[in-house]
Every structure is written in C-alpha cells, then in structure tokens.
Amino acid sequence: MTDTLTIVAVMAAVAALAACAVLTILLWRARNPGPAPEAVMADLAHQQNEAVARLQGMVAALHQGQSQLQKAVNDRLDSVSHRLGDSLQKTTQHTAENLQKLNERLAGIDGAQKNITELAMQVTSLQSVLANKQSRGAFGQWRMEGIIQDCLPKGAYALQHTLSNRSRPDCCVFMPDKRPLVIDAKFPLEGVTAYRDAKSDEDRKAAAQRLRADISKHIGDIADKYLIPGETQEFALMFVPSESVYAEIYDGFEDVVQKAYRARVVLVSPSLLMLAVALVQQIQKDARMREAADLISDEVGRLIKDVGLLGDRVRKLQTHFNQSNEDIRQAIISIEKIEARGERIQQVEVGAEASADTDILPPPITRSLAAGK
User: Fold this and answer.
1) Taking the complete model, does pTM exceed 0.90, yes or no?
2) Which secondary structure element, helix H or strand E, spans residue 67, and what is its range?
3) Contact yes or no for 231/179 (Cβ under 8 A)
C-alpha cells in the first residue's frame, strides 16, 4: 500500500510539472505572438506525449527499482528473522538455564532461611534456659557430663559422689591412687550476662565488680568443700560451659584467674576439659598397664618354672629312650646269634644227610655241637 501511494505521488508530481510547463509556454506565446494556434497545440501535444513517455519510463524504472528494493528488503528481513530466531532460541535457552540455577539458589536460600529460623528458635530457647539460675546450672552440668561420658569408661568416674564432709560435687574422676579429681559445673553465668549487657561505662564497671565477686566466691566454695587433704586430689576443676566466656574471663579478669591458681582451682573450658579428661584416661591406662605388667611378670615366672619341669621330664624321657636303644641293640645281637646258630644247625643237618649216604659222620661238626658253639 505504501509503495502504491509513492508511485501515485510521483505521477502527480510529474503531471504537475508538465502542466506548469504548458502554462509557461502558453503565457510566453501570449506575450510573443508567433505561429498559428494549431502549430502550438501540435507542439504541446508532442511535448505532452514525450512527457507521458518519460513518465511511463520513470514509472517502469521506479517499479523495477521497487521490485529490486523489495527483494533486497525481503532477503534482508529473512536473514534478520533467521538471526533473530536463533538469538531468541539461545536467549530462551540461557534464560531457562539461568532460571534453573536461580531456582536452585533460591532453594538453597530457603533451606538456609529454615536453618536460620531453627537456629533463632534454638537461641531463643537457650536464652530462656540461661535466664534461670537453676537452668544455667543444669546446662553446665549437661555439657560437662557429655564430655566425661564420651571420654571415660564407666567406673572411672562418679556423678554426685558423696565425700567424707557430706559434700556432693558434680563429678569425681577416680585417679590411680584412688583419690578423686573433683569437677564443679555450677559456674555463675548471671554475672557474665550482666557484664555483657552493660550499656554505659559505669554499668560495665559495676557488672565487672559483681562478676569478679561471684567468681571469687565460687572459687572459695570449691576450695573449702572439695579439696580434702588425703582424700581428694590437690587441685579441683571449675568448668566454664562456654569458650567465649572462658576467653573473656582470661582476657579481662586476670586477677581472678591468679586467685584461682593460688586456691588450687583450675578454670577449664569445654575443650580444656576434654584435654584434661584425655590425660586422665592416659594415666589410668598406664596404671592398668603397670598392674598388667606385674601380672605378666608373675605369669612369666610360672611359665619359666613349667619350662624347667618340662626340660627335666624330657631329659628323663631321653634316658629312657637311650636305655630302650641299648636294649634293642642287645636284642639285635641276640637275634644275630640265634640266626648264626640256626645256620650252623642247618649245616649239621645237611652234613648228617651226607654221612648217611657214606656212613661216615664228620668229627669236627660233632665236636662243635658238643661244645655248644
């Protein structure tokens, strides 16, 4: 439709130009009288025919150019359509792959979000547990018991063991000398919580004094109740159920740590408690090996005695074997003598048969028999 309108517009423009040319000639003729009107009309008709022929040629050339242009445009459109189709296909494929990867990442994010939600619930639960003093004590007791039960066999420790002063520590680990190593798990975490929640410097200073006083009092209680000369070990362990709390105490309260050392109370975190229990386990193993070494030494002595008795019996058996060999040798000598005499007797019988034929008995053989040889 657009091409047709273009052709019509071109034709109208050519017609307008031709009309303008005719009018120009008429005006010029009117001002300059000359040949007759018939000649002018004939000339105008001839010029009009030439203009129409030129117009038709221009229309044909325009139509041919339009065909070529349309063909070129169609080819170009086909090429562009093909490239666009390939590009759309690749884009669709890449988009699908990216969407798949995005879905996988979203699934991972959903899983992580669920884990974070569960962790937040657990942290909230832990905070509610640590908000109560009895719950905090139970939490420390639970962590300490888990470490002890995982590292030591049954019978090597006792929970809530009663000492001679009627005190009952959280755990007693029995050493090879039968004196228990006392472990206390009731660490005062409320002072640590107040120290961490302090907003201003004054509140933090007051919380630090409170924490220092609580830990010092707990150290004194452990030393007074659980360090019994001759009954328990010379030092006790105070279990701190958090590595961060343990590090914070060692970094900011060195005087409390030194006081604990002087009172023969050692602060241990979960990792240090595992190390201490592993050392205790190795000590108990060495003690059992020493006991087993004594038993092995006794058994080796008995084995050496049994080997000596076996040697005596073998030597007696060898004597019997030697005597048996001698008896067998004597028996073989007797058998050889009997065989020799049998041969002699056989010779005598053969000689007797020969003398029966000749009526003469050989004297040497008779003497030999008489002599018993």
Assistant:
1) no
2) helix 37-130
3) yes
